[in-house]
Design brief:
Elements lengths: L6 H11 L28 H10 L28 H20 L2 H9 L12 H9 L1 H10 L1 H19 L10 H10 L14 H19 L6 H24 L19 H17 L14 H12 L6 H6 L11 H10 L3 H9 L17 H20 L12 H22 L18 H9 L4 H14 L3 H7 L3 H11 L8 H8 L6 H17 L10 H11 L2 H11 L1 H14 L18 H6 L7 H4 L2 H14 L3 E3 L2 E2 H9 L5 H18 L5 H13 L3 H18 L3 H10 L3 H18 L11 H8 L1 H9 L3 H25 L9 H21 L21 H7 L17 H16 L2 H16 L10 H9 E3 L5 E3 L11 H9 L2 H16 L17 H29 L1
Antiparallel strand pairs: 1-2, 3-4
Helix pairs in contact: 2-7, 7-22, 8-24, 8-25, 9-10, 9-26, 10-11, 10-26, 11-12, 11-24, 11-25, 11-26, 12-21, 14-15, 14-19, 15-16, 16-17, 16-19, 17-19, 20-21, 21-23, 22-23, 24-25, 25-26, 26-29, 29-30, 29-31, 30-31, 31-33, 32-33, 33-34, 34-35, 34-36, 34-38, 35-38, 35-44, 36-37, 37-38, 38-39, 39-40, ...
């Protein structure tokens, strides 16, 4: 039929009758009297006129058989209205009624209804409407302007425009925001020790964290594009919802009323959180996942219809029960109600199945006779088949819910045309088309009774078919009348609403801010507008049901309130949803902090200023406050899984805060508590802390953590290798130097290795035994730290190598070639250490910037170790040191004797300590000297220094200050006592102090060393001359 229409004729008729086709927002009120026919122009205010009917209702007009859905003529009693407007209305209606009755003939109408030509123009029989409108155009216009409905409509439009002008772009005027905030602010925060997720609680926490980390790793980055991020968020949202729903399904569900919105007030908190999170993530991140879609967003109506089918379907089996009803589904009292319900729930195919399998021929009355036979049955089947054909053309029956697409625009036009044909078929050719949903219809009118009597289809069936057409056309009143609760009504209106036609009221407000918004934002505005239409009708929220309030917040677009409810039920779910919302930018960011001067304002002052008091959620943002709360709970869990601590996961969570300052402050607070509880055996925990902090970019705090642990090791243990490494990780070269100076101090004092091999910790042993491989492994963790440790360890390692080589001399025969080789190896190692100690005073000038790895304070003692290797052989034996090595020794002596007095005095002071620690005392010492050594030792200037054990370090000494910074008094006593006694009895290949006499000072030792070097050098010259002569 549509293809045979004349486009110009159709446009003319559309202009005349188009406003009559507009569906009304609510069913018409009953109890009206009088008679008049609404003209085409009056139909423009049909959705507002119902408000006026409420005020003018007459109790005498109540009738239980009133049809609230059919469109047609209404009647008003004429005698009681005396004003000119009423007279004009009566005149129009009376003339229309007279024309209708003059043209009505029952037999002729039935015959014409059956023999309607499919090619006939549906608008031809309505031509008389144009003539009537032209004759009374002036009266109708005056009538339109004088009606209270028109005045109210203009007022509503003005209010909506004013509201739109007050709302800034991107803002929404939330109707329930304050109520929801007052409720969730009073709820206690969820804890991780609550039994809301049964024995799988830790598994849920770990898996949720893994999926969030995967989202950051795959979708977030400086070079990642928005499409990749959106795809990653959609994948994460789907997997998280499946995870939470799987866990929630295992929780006990107390029996509550089936029609409750959400799991119910007495359900487990985790079940509530899972239900709300599913809805919230579905609205924003539902995506098509197949080979043809490329991850396009799923239209919001389709997502919501699917969600209602799985999560809010109290009567899921009702459709099948009706289909299985005998003698026929149409005989079931819930038949039409079920069809209307499945339609507003988007289940178009179910509605088609119910209509196609209704079994009209089997419908029986109570007495057992068939209801419909003959021509009536044929007419019913034709009317129902036309409705089925209309529903089959609906894109929703094929899963297409892009309601702003071209398919839906075409369907709406075809649906209106289908209703016009059906109405003409049912009421006859001479009646013309009456738009469905006309609020002026009155079942008590004579015209209606005439129509009911002359209808080709039973009037009850026609009414219900009318409802079907009104639902698919997005009529608010029909959907509100059918829906069981506000949630079902909101989703139904969001799915079926024809926004291309209905641009009034709240919808106008949302459309004014629609410019530049994405399709998903437009859908969210559509849902919010539908929700406000519903809650402003007869539906009310149950404020005692927190799930209902949370769902209302989501429908309204107040996602901050939804997170507020979530964190009262489950912190893992709340934090994950908040992070996704922040990344997707649908969760509002934190507000700008008010000036500090306003902190003293009370609520009344702020109200006068039009401001609200800012809490943590407003200042730090809902995401950050939720994550901080979650992190604090995680930190209280000792172990999440076998290889992960609670504080470890808490630190990662805090690293994802938007506020860097808040993140660092909270991480410091949590990790300080952790560091306060560690001991010397907690190296694995410190390694984890360091790695996490470095990953978060908190380098400074990572170094502080490593330094704190190194201080603990230096104070309470002898794990010098661990202490060296963690000081290196902290990038503290001075503290690395202090530890190494301590080790060199004890080694030179007792002329042996310190610490002994059996006391080495694992890390120190690996550094000494396989230094290159160990440093290479450490460099994978921190290259700079490995380089620092490798460079500064070289001096101590070389000195230790000297002592180890020297002590191996005991295992070889004296005078053998092997013994000679050992001495030469020892001398080479010793000269290398001497060269390093001399580096800072090269040329007799002290220069600390040269950063020598061995302190110059040890130079005099190192030169003393060389006494045994200089001028100790017979004239015929080869010299142990080379000419180059002699040159190094001579330069060191010269530099030491020419450098400033402070450096030289420090060297002499340490030299005296070394001599005082000689096992058994020096040659010629008396018992009084031994007692003096054990009790007090004179400093270089003769001052007395008290000693607790085998040696004393004067407070004014440079070495004393180094030692005091390295170890505590308790550690010093342990070393000076037990360890010192062990070192004193150690076996040595030789001891350079044995040949010295009591009273020999540093100057005399240097003189002896100079003399020995001169003799060895002379011997080398003679050997060189002899070799030349022999040549």
């Amino acid at each position: 039929m549509a293809s045979s229409r004349d486009p110009e004729d159709e446009d003319d008729r559309d202009n005349d009758a188009g406003l009559q086709k507009k569906p009304v927002s609510n069913p018409p009120k009953k109890n009206v009297t009088g008679t008049f026919r609404l003209d085409d122009l009056l139909a423009a205010s049909d959705d507002d006129e119902e408000d006026d009917n409420d005020d003018d209702q007459d109790a005498e007009g109540d009738d239980d058989d009133q049809d609230v859905y059919h469109s047609g003529h209404g009647y008003y009693g004429g005698d009681e209205f005396k004003d000119p407007i009423t007279a004009a209305m009566s005149k129009l209606v009376e003339r229309d009624i007279d024309a209708n009755y003059n043209n009505y003939s029952n037999s002729e109408t039935i015959e014409r209804s059956i023999e309607v030509d499919d090619d006939e123009d549906m608008f031809l029989s309505m031509r008389h409407n144009i003539d009537n409108m032209e004759d009374d155009e002036e009266v109708v216009e005056d009538l339109l302007l004088a009606t209270p409905a028109a005045t109210k409509r203009m007022k509503k439009e003005a209010e909506s425009l004013a509201r739109a002008s007050r709302v800034a772009p991107g803002k929404q005027d939330f109707q329930f925001a304050q109520l929801c905030k007052d409720v969730y602010s009073q709820l206690p925060f969820a804890t991780l020790d609550s039994p809301d997720i049964n024995s799988k609680g830790k598994e849920i926490i770990v898996k949720t964290e893994e999926k969030i980390m995967c989202l950051y790793n795959e979708g977030v980055g400086p070079i990642d594009d928005p499409e990749k991020l959106d795809s990653s968020m959609a994948a994460a949202a789907i997997s998280l919802v499946n995870l939470w729903n799987s866990c929630a399904s295992e929780l006990p569900n107390p029996e509550e009323h089936d029609a409750t919105i959400g799991p119910g007030q007495h359900a487990e908190p985790f079940r509530k959180a899972s239900w709300i999170a599913h809805l919230l993530l579905l609205i924003h991140h539902a995506r098509f996942i197949d080979e043809h879609s490329n991850g396009e967003p799923v239209p919001l109506p389709e997502s919501l219809f699917g969600w209602m089918d799985s999560d809010h379907n109290p009567y899921a089996s009702q459709t099948q029960q009706v289909l299985n009803f005998r003698p026929s589904p149409a005989s079931n009292s819930l038949f039409w109600q079920t069809i209307h319900t499945v339609l507003i729930r988007g289940q178009v195919k179910h509605a088609i199945d119910l209509l196609a399998n209704a079994g009209w021929e089997q419908t029986q009355k109570r007495l057992g006779t068939y209801d419909y036979t003959g021509r009536i049955l044929a007419n019913i089947k034709k009317a129902v088949q036309d409705t089925i054909d209309m529903l089959t053309e609906c894109p929703g029956s094929r899963g297409n819910w892009n309601v702003w697409g071209s398919e839906w625009s075409l369907f709406r036009v075809n649906a209106r045309a289908s209703w016009e044909r059906l109405s003409r078929f049912v009421e006859g050719r001479n009646h013309g088309f009456v738009p469905h949903g006309d609020p002026t219809f009155d079942t008590n009118s004579m015209a209606d009774m005439s129509r009911r009597a002359e209808s080709q289809v039973p009037w009850e069936i026609f009414q219900h078919l009318n409802i079907i057409y009104r639902i698919v056309q997005g009529d608010e009143g029909s959907i509100l009348q059918t829906a069981q609760d506000w949630l079902e009504a909101s989703v139904g209106i969001c799915g079926w609403w024809d926004q291309e036609i209905d641009r009034r009221g709240m919808l106008r407000t949302s459309m004014l801010n629609k410019a530049g918004s994405s399709q998903q934002q437009s859908y969210a505005e559509r849902l919010a507008a539908a929700f406000h239409v519903v809650v402003n009708s007869e539906f009310q929220l149950n404020i005692q049901n927190h799930c209902e309030l949370a769902a209302a917040s989501i429908f309204e677009g107040n996602f901050t309130a939804a997170i507020g409810f979530l964190r009262a039920w489950s912190l893992p779910i709340a934090s994950a949803v908040a992070e996704i919302g922040s990344l997707a930018q649908w969760l509002p960011k934190r507000e700008i902090r008010a000036p500090k001067a306003m902190d003293d304002f009370d609520d009344m002052d702020l109200e006068v200023l039009g401001m609200a008091k800012q809490g943590p959620d407003e200042i730090d943002g809902m995401k950050d406050t939720t994550l901080v709360m979650y992190a604090r709970e995680l930190a209280g869990v000792e172990i999440i899984v076998d290889d992960e601590y609670g504080w470890e996961m808490a630190t990662r969570v805090l690293g994802r805060l938007d506020s860097v300052t808040l993140a660092e402050e909270t991480i410091r607070e949590l990790l300080h508590d952790v560091l306060d509880s560690i001991d010397v055996n907690s190296s694995s925990s410190v390694e984890r802390i360091w790695r996490i902090l470095m990953d978060l970019g908190m380098t400074k705090f990572a170094e502080e953590s490593a330094e704190t642990y190194a201080d603990l090791l230096s104070r309470d243990s002898c794990k010098y290798g661990e202490a060296l490494w963690y000081y290196a990780l902290a990038h503290k070269p001075n503290k690395v130097r202090e530890v190494l100076n301590l080790l060199i101090f004890y080694s030179l004092m007792h002329s042996t290795v310190f610490p002994p091999e059996e006391d080495l910790d694992n890390r120190f042993e690996s550094l000494l035994v396989d230094r290159s491989a160990t440093l290479e492994q450490l460099a994978k963790q921190d290259v700079d730290a490995a380089q620092l440790l490798g460079r500064m360890l070289s001096g101590y390692a070389t000195l230790r190598k000297f002592y180890e080589t020297r002590d191996s001399y005991l295992s070889v025969p004296v005078g053998s070639a092997r013994a000679l080789a050992i001495k030469r190896q020892a001398s080479a190692a010793l000269v290398a250490v001497v060269a390093s100690a001399d580096d800072n005073i090269r040329g007799g000038l002290y220069d600390v910037s040269r950063d020598a790895v061995v302190s110059e304070d040890f130079l005099l003692a190192l030169l003393g170790e060389a006494l045994v290797l200089i001028n100790t052989t017979a004239p015929s034996d080869p010299v142990l040191v080379t000419a180059d090595q002699m040159d190094v020794l001579l330069k060191a002596i010269e530099d030491l004797q020419t450098v400033g007095g402070r450096v030289y005095d420090a060297c002499v002071e340490f030299f005296n300590y070394v001599l005082a620690a000689t096992p058994g005392g020096l040659k010629g010492s008396t018992p009084a000297d031994l007692l003096h050594k054990g009790g007090a030792t004179s400093g270089p200037n003769g001052e007395a220094s008290n000693s607790g054990d085998s040696f004393v370090i004067a407070p004014s000494s440079v070495i004393a200050s180094q030692l005091n910074r390295s170890i505590s008094a308790a550690s010093s006593k342990a070393v000076a006592g037990g360890v010192a006694a062990q070192l004193a009895t150690a076996r040595r290949g030789w001891d350079w102090r044995v040949g010295l006499r009591v009273g020999m000072g540093a100057d005399e030792v240097l003189r002896v060393l100079r003399l020995g070097i001169s003799r060895d050098l002379a011997k080398l010259w003679l050997q060189e001359v002899d070799d030349m002569a022999m040549f």
